[in-house]
Fold this sequence. Notes:
By secondary structure, the protein is of the alpha/beta class. The protein folds into 2 domains: 4-87, Orthogonal Bundle (Arc Repressor Mutant, subunit A); 93-274, D-Maltodextrin-Binding Protein, domain 2 (3-Layer(aba) Sandwich), CATH 3.40.190.290. Helices cover 45% and strands 22% of the residues. Strands 3, 4, 5, 6, 7, 8, 9, 10 and 11 form a 9-stranded mixed sheet that branches. It has a two-stranded antiparallel ribbon with strand order 1-2. A hairpin with a 4-residue loop joins strand 1 and strand 2 (56-58). Helix 1 (4-16) packs across helix 3. The model has no long low-confidence stretch (mean pLDDT 92).
Amino acid sequence: MPELRTLRQFVAVAEELHFSRAAQRLHMTQPPLSLAIRGLERELGADLFQRTQRRVGLSPAGAALLPQARRLLAEAEALPRLVQAAAAGLAGQLRLAFVSSIAYGPLPGWLSSFRETHADVALQLREATLDVQLAAFDADEIDAGFVLHAPGAAPPGFAAWAALQEPLVLAMPQGHPAAALRRPGFARIAAEPLLIFPRPIAPSLYDAVLGFYRAHGATPHIAQEAIQMQTLVNLVSSGMGLAWVPASVMQLQRPGVVYRSLAGGALQCETSLVWREPAPPVVQRFVGHVVGLVRAQQRQSSSLKRSERR
């Protein structure tokens, strides 16, 4: 592989087609430039220039080399910027996993704005439940992930930031008697077949749902388990039972399904952004971006509420 300095010398001569002018452009004398070009020709095994006493022209080999030499030089010049951008988290790859529920909520907007402000970061997205994400972290297949859990129960061993807290709502068949009520009481649904996610994919939230039933003196009748929230909603539409889902999932409209909040207070769930320390710069950038967006939205919401009270 020719040295970059020699390639620069070749490009100067190829563009000037005059050794003296090329030497002046390179701030050197002509004899060492001529020696360098001769050495490059020996190294590559071909004449790069056709020389006469009157003119210098590119040979076919030189014409083939010129665009490649320019490309290599341009890439070499870009390397410091690329390395500095990667060190600052402005370039590289972010492997991000997420639970399906947040995809119905703010995640698409967060990703869109991150792409706009970090165009040189390649996003590799993967929908995955908590158990799958934990295995992917251990296998170094993802850098960060959005996971669903009970409030304050983010998985241990990770840096975590609570990105979204929301109530669980009931997805129920439209023809269910309690669906006619805006906020049905627990007694109306306590004995109904329950459709729920398997415990391994969100153990703290699963336990919170079962604990909620026990606190009301009831034992849930689990009719079916399903991994994806959209699958639970589809099962509700078929009349198989009721399902507790994060409020974000209300964006998923299915014929024959209605969503209702429970009277007397609802279960809450939390979605956290988790990653392992020390975090790569690109992960730090993404975390900072999402935190900034959420806090800006919170400030805006607080400002609107103050204005309404005046």
